[in-house]
Amino acid sequence: MSRLIRLYPRPWRDRYEEEFLALLEERPPTMGDLLDTVRGRLRLHLNPQGQAEPTPWTHRIPGLLALIAGAMWSVAFIAFVFWHDKAWELAGLIPVSMLLMFLSLPGDYMAAHGRQIAIALGVVGLCIVVANLPYSPSIAIAGVAGYLIALGGLLTLAAIRAEIGPSGRWTLLVLAVLLPAAIGFPVAFGLGNISEDETWLLGVLLPYGFAWVLVGLRLAIRGSATLVDPPLNPIEPEVRAA
Amino acid sequence: MGGRLGRFGETAMWILVALRDGPHNVTRLLDDVRGLDGRVGPGTLYGAVARLERLALIEPTTNGGGRRAYRLTEDAAAAPVAVARGGVPS
């Protein structure tokens, strides 16, 4: 049973675990009680802070922006590779999707993480400069590093806002950014010759779009306060302290 | 039922009814609520307790044995009726 209680978030456990276990000692749980404990955890997950009021629709906006951004990013790269006659028109979706990614991190969040975001923007700018320089291995390496820092950082910030835990964020970062880059870029830049075949782009960049779709879905379902919204039902001080 | 208490509204109402007799520890609370509402599990009970506590309708106290118990707050006098109507007292 104590393993089931570990499913509950840390603040909840700090506050209620001891008396919960004492209760189970006095009233040994039946199979139905075990299922009820799991169900209680799921309800808590769907309503993480015990929000008593429905989430305002404005709290869905960041998640929807992230969701749309991920979908646009994915569609743009699929079209770029497979739909050559419209490739460049559809490639215009990429900067739009990046703009939406930034907008999904609203004002209060921008203020709290301004330094990191400024660094990420600086790296993006550097990448644009580097991309226009003549090809050389060192420039290619710098470009890839910039890519990893900028896009990976952006995704990580969104994942933090979506309240994805550290292990989840690392999994996302590895599967959506690091692993595709580790496999895709060496193939693409093998021996200094960029492949004529553009399908490698899908392997490297599609996981990133899918990751944003996932993060956006989570953010939209959970809701996230924006700068204009007061916080929802702040947790009681003693519970927060616990 | 219990709009602001979500899926725990019905159990929360029975907890408030049970606590009108005075402070209860959770074991007695579980027994009383089960007596009123049939099969209530510990997960549902604690979900309701946590929400009621956060809404300041119940508060922890200690019973004679030094064990934590819960009692109604002053704000909770009209709570069972209000919760049954789908809200909580402001």
Describe this protein's structure:
The complex is a heterodimer of chains A (242) and B (90). Helix content of chain A is 72%, strand content 0%. Chain A has helices spanning 2-5, 10-26, 31-46, 61-82, 87-91, 93-103, 107-112, 114-131, 137-161, 166-188, 200-222, 237-241. Chain B contains four helices and three strands. Chain B is globular and about 30 Å long. Chain B has one domain (3-84): Arc Repressor Mutant, subunit A. Chain B has helices spanning 9-18, 26-37, 42-54, 79-84, and strands at residues 24-25, 58-62, 68-72. In chain B, strand 2 and strand 3 (68-72) form a beta hairpin. The A-B interface holds A 12, 15-16, 19-20, 22-24, 26-27, 29, 32-33, 35-41, 43-44, 47, 50, 52-53, 233, 235-236, 239 and B 4-8, 26-27, 30-31, 39-44, 46-47, 49-51, 53-56, 67-68, 88.
Strand order of the largest sheet of chain B: 1-3-2
Poorly predicted regions of chain B are none
| Mean pLDDT score of chain A | 75
Total number of beta strands of chain A: 0
Average of pLDDT of chain B: 77
Helix tally of chain B equals: 4
- General shape of chain A: elongated
Distance between the termini of chain B: 16 Å
Task: Specify the structural class of chain A.
Answer: mainly alpha
Structural class of chain B: alpha+beta
Sum up the structure in keywords.
heterodimer, A: 242 residues, mainly alpha, 2 domains, 72% helix, 0% strand, elongated, disordered C terminus, B: 90 residues, alpha+beta, Arc Repressor Mutant, subunit A, 3-stranded antiparallel sheet, 13% strand, globular
Give a summary of the structure in a few sentences.
By secondary structure, chain A is mainly α.
List the helices and strands and how they pair.
The complex is a heterodimer of chains A (242) and B (90).
Chain A: H1 2-5, H2 10-26, H3 31-46, H4 61-82, H5 87-91, H6 93-103, H7 107-112, H8 114-131, H9 137-161, H10 166-188, H11 200-222, H12 237-241
Helix pairs in contact in A: 4-6, 4-11, 8-9, 9-10, 9-11, 10-11
Chain B: H1 9-18, E1 24-25, H2 26-37, H3 42-54, E2 58-62, E3 68-72, H4 79-84
Antiparallel strand pairs in B: 1-3, 2-3
